Amino acid sequence: MTQFSRFLGSLLVVNGNSQLILHGVKTMERSFSSIIAREYDVVVVGGGIVGAASARELKLRHPRLKMAILEKENEMARHQTGHNSGVIHAGIYYKPGSLKAKLCVEGMHLMYQYCDQKKIPYKKVGKLIVATDEVEIERLAELHSRAIENNVPDIKLIKGIDEIQKIEPNCVGLQALWSPHTGIIDYSQVTKQYGLDFKEKGGEIYFNFEVTKFEKSNDEDYPVLIHSKDGQNIKSKYVLTCGGLQSDKLAELSGCPRAPRIVPFRGEYLLLNPNKAHLIKGNIYPVPDPRFPFLGVHFTPRMDGSVWLGPNAVLAFKREGYSSLDFNRIEHA
Question: Where does the FAD dependent oxidoreductase domain start and stop, copy by copy (predicted)?
Answer without folding.
Answer: 41-316
